[in-house]
Amino acid sequence: MSSDTQTAQEAQPAQDVLTFADLSLSPKVLSAVADAGYPHPTPIQAGAIPHALQGKDVLGIAQTGTGKTASFVLPMLTRLEKGRARARMPRTLILEPTRELAAQVEENFIKYGKNHKLNIALLIGGVSFDEQDKKLERGADVLIATPGRLLDHRERGKLLLNGVDILVIDEADRMLDMGFIPDIERICEMIPFTRQTLFFSATMPPEITKLAEKFLQAPVRVEVARAASTATTVTQRLVSSKSKPWEKRDVLRQLIKQEEETLKNAIIFCNRKVDVSELFRSLTRHEFNAGALHGDMDQRARMTMLSNFRDGKLKLLVASDVAARGLDIPDVSHVFNYDVPIHAEDYVHRIGRTGRAGRLGKSFTIATKNDTKYIDAIEKLINKSIEWLDGNLSTIEESAEDESPRRGRGTSRRDTRKDESAEKKSRSQRQRETTTDKAGNDQQKPSASVSERKPREETNSRPVKPAHEHGRNHRRHYDDDNGSTPVGFGDDIPAFMLIETKI
Ligand code: AMP
């Protein structure tokens, strides 16, 4: 892969001089962009669109929030104005790692393609095959798919990929995280070599560089600076806490109450899915208006949760990074990090959900003594130290291991009693949910909001790796459920469970 390289400096601000009319887009597309209210292209758009219109391969290094979706949607729409689709032979294909991102791309095609009469087919899990088959049968100008569902359709003989002229691989590094690279390689090999490929990734780890080298031909490389700074309009604070989950939850509740006056809505980030569910249940028990968003929830629950949050019906959204990443969630007044993110750049993404477009925002990061090295990494990345709200970690004394939940800062006795009884109730409920399978092994039943295990792209969770893939998926584990806390008992594992037994 040889490539021309362009580097755009800023991620968000639109370029002042350049307008969309300078980019050779068709009048229909320009009119839709004008209606969307965007006068100037963002750097990734300014860098990628002219080359994409010329039919060149593009390697775009940009993350969500930079306007990268329009950077491939707009030139595709212009190029699709000539020609028409044939049954079961889509003309273009966009691969997305998750259902939400695929649905967002479809929304972009609808928004910018309102002056075109294009057939759009969305092939994602969690939706019946029949409707999708009908759309394919009609002939799709634009096919947006997650890799697993696309391959399912192909294996059922309902889809031919040899008519694809433009292939978009979006969020390639996330595809890697989710174990989709072998699927992507298979799909790329099914599409004619003469196609145009537009390839986007926020980062370029070696596996992604290799993939790009294999499947792109003389691409133009357009790079947008990585997010390494947080907006000056966001007030950031670290909040020290003891490390037991109930102690952290207690601190969080106090913070939410304390911020009541200015808190319009908030996203609360957890590192693991299991904590998203746990915290959501706890907040609900405490009568907070909360919802949850994580990769194991079924599609309908995720969409409903998001739209309720967007519409203001939900005030608090507890989310994992993977579920929330890339989603176009409107500006929020507060971000709470229930856990300090393990990857420093996730901190920047999380905080970036508030303080948008010059508005004021607040973020609070709950930190325990185990988080010191992650805080150091974040402060190094954003190149400033974050102020502590009320005393740093040196003032924290951990409770004894076997101590039951106790009052945290400023907590009333009533609150603590309520939390203790709610925790006890939840533990016994979860113990009831633990059933025994035929082999006599303990099994955890999924809770109401958590669906059965679905094919990989349907759940957003990392799939089981094929043997030859071991060692590839090593980068992100924070959304796994395999943390040290055994599900079903919380942190309180009865001693007898820890005794080794001979079978
Ligand atoms: P994306 O990076 O594609 O997820 O886009 C992030 C957000 O930027 C979306 O809400 C878009 O509607 C918005 N957007 C896209 N293009 C522009 C533009 N040229 N100017 C301002 N906002 C834009």
UniProtKB/TrEMBL annotation:
Protein name listed in UniProt: DEAD/DEAH box helicase
Coiled-coil zones: none
The keyword ATP-binding belongs to this UniProt entry's keyword annotation: yes
Highest taxon of the lineage: Bacteria
Domain called Helicase C-terminal: residue spans: 251-397
Helicase ATP-binding domain residues: 49-222
Entry-linked PROSITE patterns: DEAD_ATP_HELICASE (PS00039), HELICASE_ATP_BIND_1 (PS51192), HELICASE_CTER (PS51194), Q_MOTIF (PS51195)
Compositional bias per record (Polar residues), positions renumbered to this chain: 441-450
EC number(s) stated in the UniProt entry for this protein: 3.6.4.-
Chain positions of motif Q motif: 18-46
Family the entry assigns: Belongs to the DEAD box helicase family.
Residue ranges with Basic and acidic residues bias: 412-440, 451-470
Disordered: annotated segments: 397-493
Keywords: ATP-binding, Helicase, Hydrolase, Nucleotide-binding
Pfam families: DEAD, Helicase_C
Keyword Nucleotidyltransferase: no
Listed GO MF terms: helicase activity; hydrolase activity
Organism annotation: Aquamicrobium segne
Broad enzyme group: hydrolase
